[in-house]
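S1.2 Input.
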Amino acid sequence: MNEAAAEQLFAVQEAIRKAEHEHGRTENAVTLVAVSKTFDVPEIRPVIEAGQRVFGENRVQEAMKKWPELRKHHDGIELHLIGPLQSNKAREAVETFDVIHSVDREKIAKALKAEMDRQGRPLPCFIQVNTGEEPQKAGIPPKETDAFIAFCKEEVGLEIVGLMCIPPVEDAPGPHFALLEKIAKRNGLNQLSMGMSSDYDVAVGFGATHVRVGSAIFGARPAIA
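S1.3 Output.
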């Protein structure tokens, strides 16, 4: 699996470059976030050795277990939190990650800012938008996003660089990506975290600056007991 992951990484990188060209995007406009959640050090290391430096994790505790060791041996790692965050994990999140993709509540925004100030470690943040308005999914409803962006930037003082979304599995992703791009544009945000293994090439066409790709690189995820 290890050797295959490196080969699959190269295939995803090539597909991103191809999509950039086809959609008239600047070359290297899109950052590949390799989603290493549920995979451990032996599975991740070959991908780092193949040149990948930007990784995404869903859970703070899981990231804390494996990334200190990997960072000890590999320079230039950039770690993105792409999963939901509880306010009681804000301290560990700010210590562990370099970018936060999932700001979606006032309480989280305030907790993150307090920790960033305490640690002297300001981090760029994305606001997660629940474009499908799915009750079980994290994220701000689209109609509330403008006000929440203003709250995070003006009242809390977070560095909001862009928006993130995860479209409903059963929907065509394009309309969701288009909606996220529209909200970002009217709020002066130029970074979009959208697109996963099944649709990252589509996301590139709608202006994605970050695509979060896991299984297309690492393979099927281990079953959770």
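S1.4 Remarks. The chain has a mean pLDDT of 96.
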